Amino acid sequence: MSGSTRVLLGDPGSVSALAATLRSAAVSLAAEAERVGRARADLADAPVRVPVDRRRRTEGVQQTLQATSRVLTESAGALQHAAADLAEQVAALQRLEDEAARRGLQVRDGTVAPAWGITGTVDERTDPQAQEQVREQLERRLHACVSTIGRCRSRLTRECAQARRTLTEIRRML
Questions:
Q1: Please, are residues 66 and 16 in contact by the beta-carbon 8 Å criterion?
Q2: Strands (DSSP E) along 22-156, which ranges?
Q3: Is the overall model pTM greater than 0.90, yes or no?
Q4: CA 118 – CA 122 distance, rounded (Å)
Q5: What angle do CA 86, 100, 15 make, to 5 degrees?
Q6: Count of CB atoms within 10 A of residue 3's CB?
Q7: What angle do CA 6, 131, 143 make, to 5 degrees?
Q8: What is d(CA 57, CA 158) in angstroms, rounded to the nearest whole number?
Q9: CA distance 93 to 98
């Protein structure tokens, strides 16, 4: 995987930053829910009777804020988990590329192949059959890493879709 290909795999730092942003928003919403809860308590103690529909509406706002905060917290956790998995796989791919280069091979277009051009000194002891076994082993590792990234993306996609459905339900509560 060349540097330009690695970008297509994802950027763990950006995924982690998004998780932090969601977590921060969740904390803000939770604080607002507490503030609304205190306001509700004040309404209950008010000397003037507060209309029932206003109290219900305030309760609904508090519940919506709490539920949205929970969804964002869960989504932030899923993103952070995905960022960690992605970072692990990107590091594994980098180690694989380094090992391939040391052996005169190159990761290119999802395969491991002999590197182009002169890759080192000619060694009479080089065994083509052994080199092919190394290439195949590295290619299996490459495919395993890429498959793991695909599974992580699929899991994150499912979790994001669930969060979207839940947020849509919460929006309907308003």
A1: no
A2: 105-108, 111-114
A3: no
A4: 9
A5: 10
A6: 7
A7: 35
A8: 32
A9: 9
How many CA atoms, within 13 angstroms, populate the side-chain half-sphere of residue 65?
A: 17
Query: Using an 8 Å Cβ cutoff, are 160 and 75 in contact?
Result: yes
Q: Which two tokens stand for residue 132?
A: 């092919």
In this structure, the number of other CB atoms found within 10 A of the CB of residue 76 comes to 21
| Tokens matching residue 113 | 């192949």
Rounded to 5°, angle at Cα 31 from 25 and 36: 125
Residues 66 and 40 sit within 8 Å (Cβ to Cβ): no
Do residues 1 and 100 make contact, with C-beta atoms less than 8 angstroms apart? no
CA 104 distance to own-chain centroid: 34
What digits encode the pLDDT tens for the residues 31-46?
999 999 998 888 777 7
Rg (CA), the chain: 26
Residue corresponding to tokens 């992580």: 152
The pLDDT assigned to 126 comes to 66
pLDDT at 4: 40
